[in-house]
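Appendix C reproduces, verbatim, an entry submitted by the partner laboratory led by Prof. M.T., so that reviewers can inspect both the input and the predicted structure.
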Amino acid sequence: MSDMENIFAVEKDDKDMEIAADMARKLFRYFYRELAWEKRRIVPGLEICVVKIGFTDPENTRPAKEGEFEKEYMWVSDVDFDGKQIYGTLQNDPHSLKSYKAGDNIKVPGKQLVDWFYVQMGETYGGFTIDRMRARMGKGERKAHDAAWGLDFGEPGYVKVVPDSYLGQEKEKKKSLFSFLSKPKPTRQDYDLVAKFEHPMSVNMRSSLEDALRKNPSFINQSNELGFNMLHQLALAGSFDGVDVCLNAGFDPKQPATNGMTAYRLAKSLGWQRVMERLAKAGAGE
């Protein structure tokens, strides 16, 4: 069973939820980075990978009845992002809106994002608005909420965005004789520290990418379904190593993608500072 089908009403001026949504947008780059590398994995590593979007109907079709919602927040899977727009598949039918239904292919501006989360090896990452909702629940309600998802979202107030292993922090394996009596105390993830670390796949694929581009220089002229060449893709995914390899192999840092965005602008859309600096050094910029 999935809680993805549930509709939650949120007060219009709910400051806590606004703060949670702002944080989700600010840190969306880590969701997209994980999604980008997932597409390159031979064996899938993510069990769930979804975003929550705020939807409204056009003015002339908005609900007028009492108790109807003018705006609804719904989950979207099969996610992609092009630096401006979020693409995906709507996972549930709305309560009141008339312009959407489950299964719709959607394309919305990134600013409509209010949350995201992914699950890797049973652990959840992200879920900022979920965390705020769970913080308002009693223990029994939280347990029922998590059971509906089939997940453990952990202690409220502790939202991780990447696995600890990405930061060189493996989980403690040694357990005391009585450790089964209590859970280990959670710690807050340092988002500033997260920003200093490359994705492990970005680091590990460097030599193989160098070899591939040396053997197949024609890769420079190949693009994906969004019209992004390899440099565009790796810049948006925040891969410093990948961008560095592509630039050394002769990719044009000023070449725009189909949507008009250069590698620099794609990196900037998600705030990848090191990647922006490397591209600027190669002659790219605004």
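The longest strand covers residues 46-56. Additional entries are available on request from the coordinating office.
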